[in-house]
Design brief:
By secondary structure, this protein is of the alpha/beta class. The chain is 15% helix and 27% strand. The chain has a single domain (12-61, 72-135), classed as Roll (2,3-Dihydroxybiphenyl 1,2-Dioxygenase, domain 1). Strand 6 and strand 7 form a beta hairpin.
């Protein structure tokens, strides 16, 4: 039975990344990845990136609606708790385009041992992991 909590696609997942330097992150996402700024304040920005949205926010203490929860930028870019995945139709082409813009990837695009995708990874200026992922095979979505 389908869950009707969010009927008709009424929910969109839009990650929020905590960044210590909002302008540096905006420069990266806009100038390097091609995002469009929808909203920008001193401590917050909302971007359009591909078919989705991305929120960037500076560190902050708890608020009334999230008491006891502080937002912090990644303290160690080698130890992360998540990543942003960008589904693309041609991982190798997008990788080449971004390398030509000066972006550095952790490794070239490859197909993992379990197959079904081609992927590669880079990190933003804060250390957030970004995966480019292309689905391959019979269930290809792109």
């Amino acid at each position: 039975m389908a869950d009707r909590t969010f009927p008709d696609g009424a929910a969109e997942i839009a990650p929020m990344l905590v960044v210590s330097d909002l302008q540096r992150s905006l420069d990266f996402y806009v100038d390097q990845l091609g995002a469009t700024v929808l909203t920008a304040w001193d401590t917050y920005a909302q971007l359009s990136l591909g078919a989705g949205r991305l929120h960037l926010v500076t560190p902050s203490a708890g608020t009334d609606d999230k008491p006891g929860i502080s937002l912090i930028a990644p303290p160690d870019p080698a130890q992360l708790t998540g990543e942003v995945v960008l589904h693309v139709s041609d991982c190798r082409r997008v990788h080449a385009d971004l390398v030509a813009r000066g972006l550095r990837f952790l490794a070239p695009p490859n197909e993992p041992p379990w197959g079904g995708e081609i992927r590669c990874f880079l990190q933003d200026p804060e250390g957030h992991l970004i995966e480019l992922s292309q689905t391959t095979g019979p269930d290809e979505r792109h």
